[in-house]
Design goal:
single chain, about 170 residues, mainly beta, Immunoglobulin-like
Amino acid sequence: MALLTLAAVFACKINTDLDQPVAIDIVLPDSGRVGSARLQARTGNLFSNPQTVTVLTRLDSIRVLGAARNTVFAADSLSDSLQVQAFALGGAIPANRRVVFTKTTFPASDSMVTLVPKDTVFTNPSTGVAVVQVRLGTGPVPDSVVVTATMQHVNRTPVQGSPLTFVVEFRP
């Protein structure tokens, strides 16, 4: 679907007359199962520059890996790792796929809470795992922080199992 949409975009840049023929040459390594593909639009003797597109396996699901609850004591300002694991169809590992983490502090306060390394993390190329931690900075100590992890398909629909929720409690 993404390739067809991309092809339509390239075709429209060459010729806006929908009644005119447009050919698309797609060269896929290993029958499209690995790596990248080249996309080139053509009409008559006019050729677009080849565009490289990455071939990705379709995401199947996402799940919590490890504990979904964590308690952080006052002496420590960093939670344990909050981990999600993504799965792709056919047993492929979904490498470098985006997982978005959001945080909500309870009760709502001016606490300086951040996600480490950041709020958008990519899955590990060899495991399909994405990891964040909650860091408590200066300010009032919240009771808890709820962290939500979401993944989407290319068409922006949620991946099965998404969103996932983690709870990090803070104790004196």
